[in-house]
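User: Hi! Is it possible to get a structure for several chains at once, not just one? Here's what I have:
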Amino acid sequence: REKRLTLPPSEITLL
Amino acid sequence: PGLLEPTSSLVRVAKSASTLGIAIEGGANTRQPIPRIVTIQRGGSAHNCGQLKVGQVILEVNGATMRGREHRDAARLIAEAFKTKERDYVDFLVTDFN
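Assistant: Yes, the chains can be modeled jointly so their relative placement is included. Here is the combined structure:
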């Protein structure tokens, strides 16, 4: 069975 | 620093423009646990430097590790490194290996 990613995506910050 | 990252390289970005000009994503507790460069803006210091690339992962900034830092903390550290008048450059340890 495929393992699913449970971590959320990240924000993107312009620096 | 960086000894355990055989593909890493140190890039010194001179503060040649009023902005650093990179966008980063990722940080601890996200799908991208170490910040990654997603954009390099034309005309910014990073673009002028010519050695940073989209897709590279930022391992250290001025010798400070990015590991374990949440996104906002990593972004703040980079912003402060660019803002400080103590140095006219920012050192990035980056790797192409994600």
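The mean pLDDT of chain B is 94. Residues 8 and 95 of chain B are 4 Å apart (CA to CA).

User: Great, thank you!
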